[in-house]
Design brief:
16% strand, 577 residues, DNA_bind_recombinase_dom, DNA binding, alpha/beta, 3-stranded mixed β-sheet, Rossmann fold, single chain, Resolvase-like_N_sf, 16 helices
């Protein structure tokens, strides 16, 4: 059984309807008239347009002697929408009740849609419903000529809407090609205060100028994200410090990622391109170093009129870092999280399965994970040791490893860090790594091919729509379907290659800090665990920890600290560059 939910009318309309109801209480309900008011867009949310229409309807009814009993209102709803709540309620009243008259300003208030217009016409023909208009003629829907004239008026209203929509889309495309900022609320990082309104006292903003304090926040988010901090850690800190969004709200997980990865912040790096007429795009006249204006409807990108905040390499590095927190590429490999164990997902057990197990004598090969070991000293103090351990069972109590190998985390991380830093300072290895940074030109070429393919796909999709609507020959449908499928596959392949190149370039940027001796060593202590993990994974496939008698072993690191650690039991498997 369908339950009807009562609509809540605004206070101004409740007041008007109360007066109207008192005026018709003694009249025959068959003489009642239901008014209808509507406006498509109410950007200020003040309902001024519909209130004016209601006031005019009350005056019109009083002047012409109509028994206006109630006014129904759909504010901020398009005339092309057939499911407007107030209109549906009014049509139900005149279709089933004694009253058969609806009063509106003109036909366009009731509908700008062919199907809904046909429905209104049938109600007049079959149910005797009349539509009275203040700014239009009344149509006798009981006659063929009246129905024809009514539907012509509906067609004119629909055409007006479609023409306005086309003009709006053309204007939006033109503004995008100029790099104009989209409307809506202020974008975080922009909207510098340049003055005060003399009457309202509100701030006057330059939407294209940077807000230094918010740009500093974006740069902080960039650095902390690339250094491996999670969104939760960052937003908790920002909300605690009173840093709000552009609307004054608190930061949320997901909101932060969406904000940092906006292409609008990225310096335009897509090179020369032409507009729809084949001429050099007007956006290229904007200063170099500006951001990117994305035209969502066409998928095209233009050089914006506002300055950029991030480079492309920084943008891609943030995307890779955020993706690393969202999902693991290898579901069996432990995920490195922002925490105490930077080699998680890189350390493998080199022990063997014990006697009596199903795989006795075979290599374990289980991934080792971080764990804390607490020991009570003789003086009753607690010693806490960070370790990498091979777990015998996973979280579901299923046997997964030998459970016999463990090693001090600090010693392993220091030993591996020294080897990685030495490798990064090797000129030959640096030369190989730098090749991963030469993808910008290829990425730009792929972007141009993607935009071309996307444009062709839109065109073929439009032709397919024409076939399905009967405007073209049905024999073309099979060819169009194959063409569309081919273009979709091409787009998928191009975007896959582009993502791969950007991912490689971004990973390189995470650890790319130059070849000056001591530079990487200095940065290693200031960066987060995610950054150190990526810098290590850039060169190392995995670190194999073998069983050892660590209590009798000693190893001195580069800082002169002595560890109870057998470095000969650690095997580093390097990547092939």
């Amino acid at each position: 059984m369908k339950r009807t939910v009562a609509r809540k009318e605004p206070a101004w309309l409740v007041e008007i309807n109360a007066v109207l109801a008192d005026a018709v209480v003694d009249m025959d309900p068959s003489h009642w008239v239901y008014g209808y008011v509507r406006i498509s867009r109410d950007e200020k949310d003040r309902a001024e347009g519909v209130q004016l229409q209601a006031k005019n309807e009350v005056a019109y009814a009083a002047r012409t002697g109509l028994a206006l009993a109630r006014i129904l209102c759909d504010n901020d709803l398009s005339g092309a929408d057939a499911d407007r709540p107030a209109l549906r309620e009014g049509l139900a009243l005149v279709a089933s009740g004694p009253s058969k008259i609806i009063l509106a300003r003109d036909v366009a208030r009731l509908t700008r849609d062919y199907d809904l217009g046909n429905e209104l016409m049938k109600l007049g023909r079959d149910k005797g419903v009349r539509y009275v208009f203040m700014k239009d003629s009344e149509y006798d829907l009981a006659t063929g000529a009246g129905r024809k004239n009514f539907m012509v008026k509906v067609a004119e209203a629909a055409e007006y809407r479609e023409t306005n929509t086309e003009n709006l889309l053309d204007r939006m495309s033109e503004e995008a090609a100029k790099g104009v900022m989209q409307g809506g609320s202020r974008r975080f990082g922009y909207g510098k205060v340049v003055g005060t309104h003399p009457i309202t006292g509100e701030d006057i903003l330059d939407r294209y100028a940077l807000r230094a304090e918010e740009v500093a926040v974006l740069h902080e988010g960039r650095d902390r994200t690339i250094n491996g901090e999670s969104q939760t850690t960052i937003i908790t800190d920002w909300n605690k410090r009173g840093i709000t969004t552009s609307k004054g709200g608190q930061w949320r997980v997901g909101k932060l990622a969406d904000q940092l990865l906006l292409e609008a912040y990225v310096a335009y790096d897509l090179g020369e391109h032409a507009d729809v007429n084949g001429q050099r795009c007007e956006c290229l006249n904007n200063p170099e170093g500006n951001g990117i204006r994305v035209h969502e409807r066409t998928g095209t990108r233009h050089r914006a009129q506002w300055p950029a905040v991030f480079t492309r390499a920084e943008h891609d590095a943030m995307r890779v870092a955020l993706s690393a927190h969202r999902r693991a590429k290898d579901p069996d490999r432990p995920r490195q999280r922002n925490g105490e164990y930077e080699l998680t997902g890189l350390v493998e057990c080199g022990g063997v399965w014990p006697e009596g197990s199903e795989r006795a004598g075979r290599k374990c090969g289980n991934w080792m994970v971080g764990a804390m070991l607490q020991r009570k000293r003789k003086d009753d103090t607690i010693n806490v040791q960070r370790r990498y351990v091979c777990r015998a069972k996973d979280a579901t109590k299923v046997v997964c490893g030998c459970g016999k190998v463990f090693r001090d985390a600090g010693a392993v991380e220091m030993y591996v860090a020294q080897q990685v830093i030495a490798a990064h300072e090797n000129p030959q290895i640096l030369a190989r790594l730098d090749r991963g940074n030469d993808n910008a030109e290829r990425i730009a070429q792929l972007q141009q091919r993607i935009e071309t393919a996307a444009g062709n796909l839109d065109a073929e999709t439009d032709r397919r729509t024409e076939v399905l609507s009967g405007a073209r020959d049905q024999d073309d449908l099979r060819v169009l379907e194959r063409t569309i499928a081919g273009l979709k596959k091409t787009l998928k392949d191009l975007r896959g290659e582009q993502d791969s190149l950007r991912g490689a370039q971004a990973l390189a940027a995470l650890a790319d800090i130059g070849s000056t001796p001591g530079e990487l060593r200095k940065a290693w202590d200031t960066k987060g665990s995610r950054w150190r993990h990526e810098a290590t994974a850039r060169l190392i496939e995995k670190v194999v920890i073998k069983p050892a008698r660590v209590y009798a072993a000693k190893w001195v690191d580069q800082n002169g600290k002595t560890w109870r650690f057998d470095n000969s039991s650690v095997e580093i498997i390097w990547r092939e560059l």
